[in-house]
């Protein structure tokens, strides 16, 4: 069964790019445009990995991450931050990888596959 990736980003071009990238590698993808919808999608689909933008409306990446880590059954889902904004927020800790935008296709795929044990 294909591994599931939840893409959370408010930029439709980034979402489309990541969706095409991951779908092309055989992953099943789901998307959300903010942290509120992202948490709902995570609860519905229980993804194997989440890519997370930090600067979004409604609930940004930091608030989403803090909420996710408190959710039973979702707290252990690996997260990769893909963002174009500033330094790492302290809430993330050092074990959350950060990829800067613009996204490097090879680096992103390598990291995601490594985190998923592929």
From TrEMBL:
It comes from the Bacteria. One of its GO terms (biological process) is phosphorelay signal transduction system. Keywords: Phosphoprotein. The modification 4-aspartylphosphate is found at residue 53. Gene3D superfamilies: 3.40.50.2300. Residues 4-116 form the Response regulatory domain. Pfam families: Response_reg. PROSITE patterns: RESPONSE_REGULATORY. PANTHER family: RESPONSE REGULATORY DOMAIN-CONTAINING PROTEIN (PTHR44591:SF3), STRESS RESPONSE REGULATOR PROTEIN 1 (PTHR44591). This is Response regulator receiver protein.
């Amino acid at each position: 069964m294909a591994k599931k990736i939840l893409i959370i980003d408010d930029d439709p071009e980034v979402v489309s790019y990541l969706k095409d990238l991951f779908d092309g590698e055989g992953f099943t993808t789901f998307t959300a445009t903010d942290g509120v919808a992202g948490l709902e999608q995570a609860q519905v689909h229980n993804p194997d990995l989440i890519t997370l933008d930090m600067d979004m409306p409604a609930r940004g990446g930091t608030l989403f991450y803090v909420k996710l880590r408190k959710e039973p059954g979702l707290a252990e889902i690996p997260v990769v931050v893909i963002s174009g904004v500033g330094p790492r927020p302290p809430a993330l800790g050092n074990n959350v990888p950060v990829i800067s935008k613009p996204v490097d296709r090879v680096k992103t795929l390598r990291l995601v596959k490594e985190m998923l044990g592929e």
